[in-house]
Amino acid sequence: MRTEPLHLVFSALEWGADRRPKYLQLYDHIRQAILNGQLRSGEQLPPSRVLAIQLGVSRTTVMQAYGHLESEGYLGGHTGSGTYVSEQVPGRLALSGLSLADGPLASDGPLLSERGRAAAGFQAGGWPKAQNLRPFRPGVPALWDFPFSAWFRLMGRQSRSLGFEAFGYGDAAGYMPLRRALAMYLRQSRGVRCEPEQVIIVHGTQQALALSCQLLLDPGDSAWIEDPGYNGAKEAMHLMGVRPIPVPLGREGISVEAGMKAGPEARLAYVTPSHQYPTGVVMSLGRRLELLEWAARQSAWILEDDYDSEYRYSGKPLAALQGIGREGRAVYLGTFSKVLFPALRMGYIVAPPALAEPFQRAKAFTDRGNSILEQATLAAYLEEGHLERHLRRMRLLYKERQEALIHWSEKLLGDRLRIFPSDTGLHAVGWLPEHSDDRQVAAQLMEAGVTASPLSGYTQQYRQPPGLVLGYAPYREEQIRDALERMAGVLEQLPA
Amino acid sequence: MRTEPLHLVFSALEWGADRRPKYLQLYDHIRQAILNGQLRSGEQLPPSRVLAIQLGVSRTTVMQAYGHLESEGYLGGHTGSGTYVSEQVPGRLALSGLSLADGPLASDGPLLSERGRAAAGFQAGGWPKAQNLRPFRPGVPALWDFPFSAWFRLMGRQSRSLGFEAFGYGDAAGYMPLRRALAMYLRQSRGVRCEPEQVIIVHGTQQALALSCQLLLDPGDSAWIEDPGYNGAKEAMHLMGVRPIPVPLGREGISVEAGMKAGPEARLAYVTPSHQYPTGVVMSLGRRLELLEWAARQSAWILEDDYDSEYRYSGKPLAALQGIGREGRAVYLGTFSKVLFPALRMGYIVAPPALAEPFQRAKAFTDRGNSILEQATLAAYLEEGHLERHLRRMRLLYKERQEALIHWSEKLLGDRLRIFPSDTGLHAVGWLPEHSDDRQVAAQLMEAGVTASPLSGYTQQYRQPPGLVLGYAPYREEQIRDALERMAGVLEQLPA
User: Fold this and answer.
1) Taking CB atoms and an 8 Å cutoff, what residues of chain A touch B215?
2) How many CB pairs under 8 A join A and B?
3) ipTM above 0.95, yes or no
4) Does the pLDDT of residue A496 top 70, yes or no?
5) pLDDT per residue over A223-244, tens digit each?
6) Number of neighbours of residue A489 by Cβ within 10 angstroms
7) Which domains, ranges and CATH numbers included, belong to chain A?
8) pTM of this prediction?
């Protein structure tokens, strides 16, 4: 039976660069030999004294390794004297012909589920990494201007005032004082109809999207997405087995008419009415009503993503679509990624009253809720008026930065980049000359040290004029000017 | 057309208890009247001066409300003089016969998706709430003995040393220093084979379960679960459209033989090999190998939930099942809910190498990653040896508490409750007299001020002898003794 003499099993052991204790290395080596079939059931191992001498280690080391293997069932009853490979192991291994310690993943079929493959088929990345935070990477607020020290002081205070029990399992739908504060904030500032019980605290918009698709749609169902639009919505849908149907935009927002043609069976529409992502179009009242009527007629859902509505630079923000109809067909999503900072990973769902409990449960079954300390800190941040003050400051700052972007763009780039002033948001679209290729321009800019997302990266099916999505919120005027100067160098070479 | 004269629209306005500014109340009232169809397209509103007198408010209030309605598109172009209801709104409303402002959710079909209904069908609750943390509620570690002040100090330090950019969007799979520290910890203490890239930081075991089911299984696929077992696994599966197949346990752990009969098509097995939840059975080496062989033959997956393996009171913990085979069919799940505290909501997946990237993406598409600050704090906690020290302290404490439970149970309850000592865990099973009904006993205990989870609450299909799952980790000896005294009062009344 044996292919190699016993001493060869041990002579192959190299202590080498391994920093683990020797007894662990020996344990591992013997275990592998058993699983490989080099050591077989019933076979006797060398006495610890003998092996210790052979390997040049202390007898204790060998005894520790043997003891450990015994406690795990690899070595068994020393009848009288001697240590033997356990009867538990190898018969079966030999029988099945499978060597558990060998080789790569053997599989006839695909490794992932269908929905897993659909999701994995996407380009990873696609969302901004903090490491490369330079103009004009979009999606990030002014991290350098966030009052972190005040935030962490508040966190420290909350950490001392929460009782021990708060650090056990809490309400998966969220910390009640936060849900109360949020409900009041959303009623007052966004015209959202809601009670605290309808508010579900989640880990950002992405989770809100994933949870909503999961709870409201079945695999194979279809849903409208704005085209161009937020790629994260598409990703969440694919992961949930839902089929996204791109619907074109008009000047008033998503075209309900086109949607009914492209996806007459759709069960949901994902929209960004306050400030369409990324074009900035504000959905008109008429279009909002049309969409609500469609949802009511079709028994479909509207996912209203209000991701940056807090940043409106003139006038009061438009009220949320959710607040218009009493039909309860709109699920409202919000995030603190733009208002505070992305790495907080905190957002919320306002579920229609009829869905509040199912959403609470779905959140519980998904991850049992958010971390308590950050929820408690955020509750205090809202209750004590810090959020309002921060938003007031940021509105001024972002407005200035948008103005700087437009001013320097006109000055340095003239007609080669046209940016229209907007009342809202953290980014703007810069339109390129008609026949340019925005992906190619973005690639050239990247080499020149400027990040700019090509608008075509947000489109699915409906071609847009070439453009660049330019985040301006986190960058100082000098940075903006410097980046536009580099951009001028690149755009000058474009055919006019 | 009109059903009521214009002045009636406004006479219905009651300022009453509403604390919002009057202009907002007026705005809301007019908006509702438009959406209700009380005010129709093209209809003229009273001049602001007139309405102000009628309502007894300042003219500014009315003008603010009008202005706001105009900016949202409800009121439109005053041709010459006067304010009119916009043309955008009501035609369509009248046509469709739908009143957007009316009534409850009208729907022909069910509100939720099939998977949503499957998940919502469960009893909510079922996991411990911190509010009722009293003996013997299981699943919670010794919160009162956790060194929160050291933890928060570390958090404060990390908050000051992380750069601003760290608070943007980071790596969705987790903060790399934490993944590195965890990989090292798991290799050394649990025998898990892994590189940092295989470690995905998630929001606790529940998310690890949900993500794994989502990525590896399709709706309609089936998966083995231990019976009795962890209810959270069943919940996650239902939410993902996966069919859980209960498989009975033997003395060596889950019965692979019975599993192959009950669910021959299963694509996954969810197991707790180190310390079966809730019975405490340790899966034998032979059974582990059998399960690994089944997975390899079947191209199925093993989800190894190692939820409390750190708490072994004598000897070294058994190595993880994941470390046995090189086949890469085991996905390893761990949590910090038992080791640190549940409200941290932090756990991890160790994906097989071939699945590391798909898991990273799935986490990104699900929620874009965990909060940075707690990850950075945890990384330092591991790197600086705090975790090891805390675990050493807790092992001693929990061992003492288990001994106290057994000691006082024998003394006060004798044969009416039999608890077998265990080398591991945060809870034990107390076996009741043969013919008792554990749910009924638990209900009586609840009234007597003692929480005890009936074992039958963890079973699906295979009847167990009556028992109670008794958490002991967070309770002091006096609390344990007191609870057992109350229990004695209840159990004495049981028929012998």
Assistant:
1) 112-113, 115-116, 119
2) 388
3) no
4) no
5) 999 999 999 999 999 999 999 9
6) 13
7) 6-96 (1.10.10.10), 146-387 (3.40.640.10), 389-491 (3.90.1150.10)
8) 0.89
